[in-house]
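subagent[fold] <- orchestrator: predict structure for attached chain, return tokens only, no commentary.
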Amino acid sequence: MSSRGSLKGRSPKPATHGGIDYAELEALGLKPGEVLDFSANINPFGPPPGLREALERVDISSYPDSGSGRLRKALAEKLGLGPDSIIAGNGSTEIMRLAALAFFRPGDRVLVIEPAFGEYEVSCRIAGAEVVKHVLKAEDGFALKVSEVAKLAAECRPAGLFVTNPNNPTGKYYSREVIEEVLASPFAADSLIVLDEAYLGFVDPPGAAWSSLDLIERHNLLILRSMTKDYALAGLRLGYGVAGKEIIARLRSICPPWNVNAAAQEAGLYVLKEERYLEKSLSDIRKVKAHLVEGLKKLGFNPEPSATNFFLIETGNGALWRRELLKRKILARDCASFGLPGHIRISVRTREDCDKLLEGMKGVKGRLDGKL
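subagent[fold] -> orchestrator:
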């Protein structure tokens, strides 16, 4: 290649994410440890006790198991599936991209139900596929109307569809009947349906979550789940996909070797034995969430009803509120990238942290009243 002009390839626009932007904090003269991060939807109580000690025993001088065999076997036993129906990933985002590369071709159309995680579109663009969006409406309570999805699908004939359950950023949790209706739609027989269940573990109230695992053998269905969120493993990155054996084999055929590092695999094996810790965390999250929602309502806000550990708040100008909160060392998620520029998304943290958020929201509201 003799010049920059000869460089060719796909360069999709990066997705916007929650979490700390270290360069942004440096520019503002802030340190990461000073900022309360309400923008990332992970377990606020951290990893289970004892995990750090377990990780000290990991052999980092040797290559990890390239197929994550022990982890997949442990997941299979927990889920009641065979290991060949599971693929482990460096977070579920990696598996999204593998799915796009394995199943979508340049020129294909892929349907994305929005608002949604921006990596769905990025994954499709990397594969050269065109993204067709079905946007759920705030005035309808972000309800998923399958008849409208099916009508759009009949027009665009998609090679795939991405749907999040529970939805990010709305926190809406769709019933089994709704998802089965999607899978029963005529277009689904020839499409890969990607059902992202990254926040399934946070569904509230207890017992409300339903299992989709029995659907994988009857449909072209790939289920994505995140251990990063449930067990606060964001620094390690760990997720997995569940599907019929043929789909998993196809994903594994293009999966990079050693894609899940040794520490992440060991962490996955450890946390799978910590169900009580997770149950305790979720119980505490529910209590703090109720306290936080009540406090926000007293300040005059009306948080969007949510079945998860995060929710939307309409502020009128999400970017402005994010900026003003960050001045107070509080990080919220500006939802403009979700098509909701008037909203911020807040994740539940500890009660002490949430009280600081309420104080910050009160201060920003007092400063901005009449200026939005």
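orchestrator: received. Logging for downstream: Residues 100 and 124 are 6 Å apart (CA to CA). DSSP finds 13 helices and twelve strands in the chain.
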